[in-house]
Amino acid sequence: MAAMRWRTVLASLLLSMVLLTGACSTQAPSPYESIQQETTGRNAPAAVSREALAGSNFNRFFPASANGFDVVPAQEKQGFAEYKLNQGGTTVAMLSINDTVSNPESAQKFADSTEQIAGYPTVDIGSQQTAILVSDRFQVKVQSRDDSFVRGDRVAWLEQFDLSGLSRLE
């Protein structure tokens, strides 16, 4: 009987120690916690306009897989949809449609465009990106992810989007 009582006392003591140790330990705050508080506590405007179309509205305008290329959905959010362009299991480019209503400045880069693709103003962004602006609102962009995927390839894929359908989107 004394052995049983001794085990009960020992178990209670160990349980108390575990609870006390767990309650007293302090965990260092996450380095992201302060950033989160700073960015959410300053009444900043929303990053995406309420007028921006849902990314799901853009899916039907992307080109289909063809000729050894697979067009694979990658990301979709308010005002934006993006697909990977894969060839032989490697991502060679990213295809995207962006509603510039949230960032009108992004549409301004097309104002001085002297070149067109499929009747829409185009710009090259660095050496790896080519974009067009549809209906003064929707930026359609192809970004090379492989050195073998050159500007001519980007232009060819831009022309495969359903641009006339996108131009009618409201």
Description of the structure:
This protein has five helices and seven strands, in the order H-H-E-E-E-H-E-E-E-E-H-H. The chain is of the alpha+beta class. It has two domains: 39 residues; 113 residues, Protein Transport Mog1p, Chain A, CATH 3.40.1000. A hairpin with a 2-residue loop joins strand 2 and strand 3. It is elongated.
What is the arithmetic mean of pLDDT? 84
What sort of overall outline do the alpha carbons produce when their principal axes are compared? Answer: elongated
Secondary-structure content class: alpha+beta
Number of helices: 5
Order of helices and strands: HHEEEHEEEEHH
The stretches of 5 or more residues where confidence is low (pLDDT under 50) are none
Q: What profile does the largest beta sheet have?
A: 7 strands, antiparallel
What layout of secondary structure does this protein have?
Elements: H1 2-24, H2 31-40, E1 69-77, E2 80-87, E3 90-99, H3 104-108, E4 116-117, E5 120-125, E6 129-134, E7 138-144, H4 151-158, H5 163-167
What descriptive keywords fit this protein?
Protein Transport Mog1p, Chain A; 2 domains; alpha+beta; single chain; seven-stranded antiparallel sheet; 5 helices; 170 residues; elongated
Summarize the structure.
With 170 residues, the protein is of the alpha+beta class.
